[in-house]
Amino acid sequence: MKNTNEMEIIFDSYSSNEGFARVAVAAFMTQLNPTVEEVSDVKTAVSEAVTNAVIHGYESKIHKVSIRCKIEGQQFTVEVRDSGIGIENVEQAMTPLYTSKPELERSGMGFAFMEAFMDQVEVESELGKGTSVKMKKTIGKGRELWTTQSL
């Protein structure tokens, strides 16, 4: 039987809650004994997803953002959801340097960072109904090999 655990948090879409989201997710994943780098990767990806929900999904209006985390064995999954305006063209939105809000001097690298720091990123969106960003990362990948070879 695999070790499983889940949690969900729901919070207002204030940009100041982005830090709360990062810390809450990091605290939950500590049970997997992640490296500092793994924690940093997940925190960065969560930060980008929450920021997208606040700025793009809700256009800085105050609504709810939810984060669900799930642990199955060493697989860590985090899903950030909003019920905002949605993304018209997900493929275009995921293109590096693309931004729908150039007037805010956004870099357009949010999804690229998520993809760089996580093993898998899935984005589902429906106009007028919101967006879900589901990200997965295997914690401890490669550590077993290193400890076996170092003996």
Automatic annotation (TrEMBL):
Question: Transmembrane ranges?
Answer: none
**A GO term (biological process) for this protein?**
sporulation resulting in formation of a cellular spore
* Entry keyword set: ATP-binding, Kinase, Nucleotide-binding, Serine/threonine-protein kinase, Sporulation, Transferase
What are the residue boundaries of the Histidine kinase/HSP90-like ATPase domain, all occurrences included? 37-141
Its Enzyme Commission number(s) read: 2.7.11.1
Catalysed reaction, written as an equation: L-seryl-[protein] + ATP = O-phospho-L-seryl-[protein] + ADP + H(+); L-threonyl-[protein] + ATP = O-phospho-L-threonyl-[protein] + ADP + H(+)
Q: Which one of the record's GO molecular function terms can you name?
A: sigma factor antagonist activity
Q: State the protein's purpose.
A: Binds to sigma F and blocks its ability to form an RNA polymerase holoenzyme (E-sigma F). Phosphorylates SpoIIAA on a serine residue. This phosphorylation may enable SpoIIAA to act as an anti-anti-sigma factor that counteracts SpoIIAB and thus releases sigma F from inhibition.
Q: Which family does it belong to?
A: Belongs to the anti-sigma-factor family.
Q: Which PANTHER family match?
A: ANTI-SIGMA-F FACTOR RSBW, ANTI-SIGMA-F FACTOR RSBW-RELATED
Which HAMAP family has this protein been placed in? Answer: Anti_sigma_F
Name of the protein? Anti-sigma F factor
Q: Which organism is it from?
A: Faecalicatena contorta
Gene this protein is translated from: spoIIAB
